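G., before I forget:
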Amino acid sequence: MTKHETVSFREAQSRYKGIFAWIFSTDHKRIGLLYLYSIIIFFFTGVILGAAMKLELLAPGKTVMDAATYNAIFTLHGVIMIFLVVIPGLPAIFGNFMLPIMIGAKDVAFPRLNLLSWWIYVIGAIIALSSLFMSGGPPDTGWTFYAPYAFKTNTNMLPAVIGAFILGFSSILTGINFIVTIHRMRAPGMTWFKMPLFPWTLYGTGWIQILATPIVGITLLMIVGERIFSIGFFDPALGGDPILYQHLFWIYSHPAVYIMILPAMGAISEIIPTFANKSIFGYKVIVISTLAIAFVGYFVWGHHMFTSGMSGTALYTFSLLTFIVAIPSAIKVFNWVGTLHKASIQLETPFFWAASFLFVFMIGGLSGLALGALATNVHLHDTAFVVAHFHFIVFGGVGFAFMGAIHYWFPKIWGRMYNSKLATSGWIIFFIGFCTLYLPMFFLGVSGMPRRYYDYVERFHGPNIVSTIGSWVLILGLVIIVYNLIRSAYKGEKASKNPWGGRTLEWSVDSPPTLENFEEIPVVTRGPYDYRKKTEA
Amino acid sequence: MSIQLHRDDDASKLGMWLFIFTELLLFAGMFIVYGVYRYLNPVAFHLAASELSITAGTINTIILLISSATIAMASSALRLKNKQLTIILLLSTLFMAFMFMTNKYFEWKGKFGHGIFPGSDDLLRLGHGDTLFYGLYFFMTGLHALHIVVGFILISVVCYRVNNNTLTNNNPVLLDNTGLYWHLVDLIWIFLFPLFYLIP
């Protein structure tokens, strides 16, 4: 070894210059930021599409777009947000950046494979979005590409489906990389149960990515085969069964929800003990419930299809399993609340995000039980209630955890502090906007407004106006947050190594970290959330 | 080994095994579809399957089994530092892969000659069961053949690198992982062969 590096990973020189030093970098921190910047671009595209839908729903009848455009927009909104933003979101950004540091490693196990998965991601994204610019327009099937409409529609299905297939590869490779990294590269002394909870959730996520993604991969290939060669697997006219498509699709796409939410739970499990200045309550139980969610999550896909036609036994079984998978999530909520009990809480922006995460996640989770019950599901199926539930979990759960995580790790990643007042006001505006946007949709759903319709009858008008206004408030909050973060990345005051008093390993390295993270690999002797006495330094 | 160069062969093996899980589940999706449609169309699947040549299928099975053996022997030969034998065994694996594809080509060509290919009018006239059986046959063996091609490229790279001494006894993991991949391709065929040729 030569003399240790003292410059941060941003200034470190490599054999490439300028932008090439980023897009050809195998440094896990640079790759994490590459993901961050690309995902942010897609996120804002998705937000604009979502806002356009809310604008259309401001009044009954045609407001700003016709029905076909609306169909294309909700499909694109779904495809972009699910496949390009939320699935890679936390694992690919914060997983890449933080995982090696948190387990005391210099990089992931396969750095070049890591770079390859970013490139695959970008290629997949470009192919998926190219349908926008082709004659015939973007697909209009919804992000689920349900058969048989997926091979009957005249819109450009193939780019979207092939793009999603390629994105699956990126996800699988990231999963393999993380699992091997966690198995092989933990610092000496870091036993499995001394590992922080964010890496634990990435571990669970990795297994879901490896075991569930290929199923949707092959299913999407079958859709491609269906469109090009008319092989007939899902076409009733050729003897195929469209319900089989739904099964195969949800065998992946339900576990995919856990690919999204598990790392979010991991981030919350990091933020809460740090700002409570207290060891997390029930560490092992959180680990076990993480693995339980990853495992049971495979066996609940049928609850997306309660009205599609299944045997009575299948219905009861899937409903029961759905209730069972809610238990480990609830256990986690109890653990987080238990950690806060009698804690001396630091009221900082990441904590506000984590606390509001608990609030929206509870609403999302409990409304999920209403959908998991067979009788209410029949009434609520395909209504705005489902949309509200889904957004409370995925935008509320994952989105809030993401916002919490980006504020929490901001000093570590950029080496500067954000403006706390601006960040907190951004949070409160976003939070109010979020609730105003999605809470009315629960009422709309219960009173019978279907989802994916660009028009509605007059009696749904009131809540829809409230909801649309909520979308404007939410966007205002988002603009404040993003403005603050971008400004602070350049002009914020310099951050110390450990501004929040965290105990996990990432707080023991420089902000921002050096190229190699650690001068020498640390030896771990204590648990990750040991607040009993101060660490030295 | 220098200290700076991080190398972890166990990690590479673990990564390969995880990738193999992924591949198996990719085909598992197809096996589910096969299972469902065989259950729904037992008679048509029975009759359609008897149209496939068991001889051709058996020959291909034998070819793949032998090729699996030769690549495993290549791994051992490399560890025994016998470069020449390693290359001979790798080249014979490549030859088997080529023979498999040739055999497959004539099999498919024969079916095409009878107007049996996805979306053909003749196939549609035969009815739903036959359409699905041949759809699955072409889709699954086609996907498998694609894996053979990928394996062929991988083995060629390994062979090239053994020849110019960049892959030796000191770092055999690329050959081992290629061998694992080739066994996976073999394993999948071991399931495809009875499903399409033998069960009727």
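Chain A has one domain: 20-508. The interface with chain B takes residues 1, 106-107, 109-110, 113, 172, 175-177, 179-180, 183-185, 210-215, 217-219, 221-222, 225, 229-233, 238-241, 244, 248, 251 of chain A (CB under 8 Å).

More on Monday.
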